[in-house]
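call fold(seq) -> tokens
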Amino acid sequence: MVLLCHRTPEGVSQKPRRGEGFGVQAVEHGVDEEERNVVHVFTTGEKIDWGASFVSLLSSLTMCGPFPFVCTILARAPVEPAPKESMASPPEPSEHSMAFEALVYNYLREKKPKLLTDMFDEESRQEFEKNNYLCEDNPLLSSPWSDALLKKYARFRYDRMKERNEGRLEVWECLKCKTRFTTHESHLTRHIGAHEDLPCPCVVEDCEESCKCPSSLISHLKDKHGLRTDTLSRPELARLKQVESEFAKNAEVFREKYFPIGAFIGFNTIKRLDTQEMEDPVCRECCEIINSATTRRRHVAGHLKLSYPCVFEGCECKGVPCTLAAHFTKKHFTKVSDLDEDQLVEYKRIKLDFANVVKKEVSKYFPHRDQIREEEPSI
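ret:
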């Protein structure tokens, strides 16, 4: 690879010289034509550290005089493709590489053909069959598998199946107690508290109770103290957030012990529908189509004429929780998190009342799809 730096007189148009590798032309202005010469040449057979090379280049130009210059990329050298490896000796598999995909496809085709449709879509299957990818030295066809290979395959299987099962809950099995959980991967740490000592102390002052996990703590607050998370004081809420954060951090240390990637069983056969999919998007009152579940609830509040006063004394503004939060910031320059104790309690009361009223009435405006089918006359 060669880097060329040329001095050229001001106003002289000089086309870049093309050659092997990259050419970088430094054009200095205000120099006599006779003084044009090659200032600096780098020649190397390896990749150039462009940052270091340009620093060296600029240093050389500076030593020649304080000339302004511009640099131009001339050409990129053609890169010869790496020789193809024999199909009988595949490259070392790397996670999610095309080579490893081919090894997995070959393994499933030979040993577990029923799983092919779970992990490869029709287009991918046709592509592999078209190329007739056969591998005699496939490590997946040998046993026993190494721990590293087992983990690699399990991760590939999980990621590939997750892509093809959007909206379905995952099934995991705890290695210690063999209990199966139908949930999301991120929720598995909750169970770790049942096996490890990861105390979650009560956030209420003078209460010495300690729970196994944050969800148990929330149940304790409700059952023992009559407190929901939306009615906690600011200090109590801050302590709860800290407890949840500490638990998640400590439980993650034991994740591989109880739920390694190999503990993934599969996906629940029943797709979990969220509220947005379950509700009919057409409002029965005004026929407006609203696709967002959150926006539907604000829409229902409009029909119900729900309105709550601002928590700032003397302010006559009214609205629903989300518009009030925006009002606090715009009018009073205060975020919800910065409200004082009394204001925060009142705002939480407003949110709770809004949620309860809308929850009770929303089906009258946006009924569930099953409800619509039941109301349709049979033919």
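The two ends are 79 Å apart (CA to CA).
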